[in-house]
Amino acid sequence: MKIANLAGRLALLTAAGDAALDAATASAGRFGPSPTTAFDSWPTFTAWAHISDMSGAKAFNTDDLGPVSPLPRQVFAVGLNYVDHTAEAGFTQPTQPMIFTKFPSCLHGPRGDIPLPAPASDISVDWEVELVVVIGVLADRVAPDDAWAHVAGLTVGQDLSERDLQMRGAPPQFSLAKSYPRFGPIGPHLTTLDEAGDPGDLTLTCTLNGEMVQNGNTRDMVFDVPALVAYLSSVCPLFPGDLIFTGTPPGVGMGRKPPRYLEPGDILESRIDTLGTMRHRCV
């Protein structure tokens, strides 16, 4: 099942992802119109969605897609979760998950423009394609073996990062540098686990102006999704709609010699097997 935020309204997508059914209309107001209502009672919503008649689905403009969880209480992110990325970043591999936050105001949909901070001569904005986990059921001190039961589904994300601000100071402070407006695009939709394939074997790619800059696989994650859900929920509850950016594979701009960063006019495409593609223009 694919679930989307379409012009601010909760929608179900066909298997091909090319037509949408408005949830509020189809459920006679039981769910929707806000996408957040899907997470208010996730098991009940998915039970209804799985038996919904999709014959009324209509074609839509992909530019209308927004973040599938637009108002999460918490947005967690994981640093250095791929060994090769840790090496290119010049850090030592952590022995436990390295957690920071992206503030919810940075969230954006899978299409559109990404404004780069000004002045342009001083910016060092980097790309980081990531698998993003969306929580569906409250997770509070859950065991790794039980973690998937608390996950609504998966989506594609970009953890855009202003490296100068990120690395300024000792120790570095990550969260603000990763929370500029639209620095947390996710999408194009949420894919439930029954259609996502093996989460431990998904290919992530990122292209910049058509050039492949990242090509990794989730099998290379140091801490997999169950380990991350268990670790985070051992400290604080994870609420329905919360997001976990699970880390990026190697190939980021900071690790290149010389470093390479985003510029106005650049086209960034982010893709994960079975989950879809995002496309953004830097301005």
TrEMBL record:
GO molecular function, one term: metal ion binding
The Fumarylacetoacetase-like C-terminal domain, residue ranges: 75-281
Keyword flag Plastid: no
This protein's UniProt keywords: Hydrolase, Metal-binding, Signal
Gene3D superfamilies linked to this entry: Fumarylacetoacetase-like, C-terminal domain
InterPro entries cross-referenced by the UniProt entry: FAH (IPR051121), Fumarylacetoacetase-like_C (IPR011234), Fumarylacetoacetase_C_sf (IPR036663)
A GO BP annotation: carboxylic acid metabolic process
Leader peptide range in chain numbering: 1-19
Matching Pfam families: FAA_hydrolase
Family: Belongs to the FAH family.
Protein name per its UniProtKB record: Fumarylacetoacetate hydrolase
